[in-house]
């Protein structure tokens, strides 16, 4: 139990300052892209700083391992393609306020920055800590739970059905990303999986908006 409480404390230690920094930036520049860049950069940099204080980067997933990357990318595409039709039925013309207007900026956020920032925090810092101090599945499942629940904040203005779906979908994606990270010891697989899943979601979202 103490290990889970510590993991939550580490999560909040990164999450709260990141949101405060993003909030201050939004007061000066109400641009979803800039706010997204700052948020994800804060996730990444603060997570790396905390990891450096409590362990070593290699132990927390900063290892070069490409063995399962194609498989992780393919599974990300496949799972997202399966769940996407459900999301499209529930979305009800809703558009998150954190999405920029530019397709290029959306792609940068969803395919590069969000995987780097979020996976470094969740599968790097949180799951990495739990893998060192608890069991394989406790680390994966607990991290996936908080990863799913935090999406309530991002989609707080979404239709209720879509919001519930997003939380469950994020939990599922968190489980798979966490599994790939755990078996490989590398965050590269989690980055690849997250980017692939977002690619399908982004493509579908843009298609819906144009039709």
Automatic annotation (TrEMBL):
Keywords: Membrane, Transmembrane, Transmembrane helix. This is CAAX prenyl protease 2/Lysostaphin resistance protein A-like domain-containing protein. One of its GO terms (biological process) is CAAX-box protein maturation. InterPro entries: Rce1/LyrA-like_dom. The lineage of its organism: Archaea, Methanobacteriati, Methanobacteriota, Thermococci, Thermococcales. It comes from Thermococcus paralvinellae. The chain crosses the membrane at residues 32-54, 66-86, 98-117, 129-155, 161-180, 187-208. GO terms for molecular function: endopeptidase activity. Residues 104-200 form the CAAX prenyl protease 2/Lysostaphin resistance protein A-like domain.
């Amino acid at each position: 139990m103490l290990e889970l409480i510590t993991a939550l404390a580490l999560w909040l230690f990164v999450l709260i300052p990141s949101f405060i920094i993003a909030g201050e930036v939004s007061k000066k520049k109400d641009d979803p892209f800039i706010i997204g860049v700052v948020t994800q950069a804060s996730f990444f940099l603060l997570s790396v700083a905390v990891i450096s204080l409590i362990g070593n980067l290699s132990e927390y997933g900063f290892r070069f391992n490409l063995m399962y990357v194609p498989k992780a990318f393919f599974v990300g595409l496949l799972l997202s393609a399966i769940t996407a039709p459900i999301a499209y039925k529930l979305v009800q013309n809703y558009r998150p306020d954190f999405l920029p207007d530019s397709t290029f900026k959306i792609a940068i956020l969803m395919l590069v920055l969000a995987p780097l920032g979020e996976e470094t925090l969740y599968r790097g810092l949180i799951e990495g800590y739990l893998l060192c101090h608890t069991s394989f599945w406790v680390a994966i499942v607990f991290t996936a739970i908080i990863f799913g629940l935090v999406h309530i904040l991002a989609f707080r203005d979404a239709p209720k059905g879509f919001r519930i779906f997003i939380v469950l979908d994020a939990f599922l994606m968190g489980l798979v990303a966490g599994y790939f990270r755990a078996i490989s010891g590398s965050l590269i697989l989690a980055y690849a999986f997250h980017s692939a899943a977002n690619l399908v979601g982004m493509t579908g979202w843009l298609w819906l908006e144009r039709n």
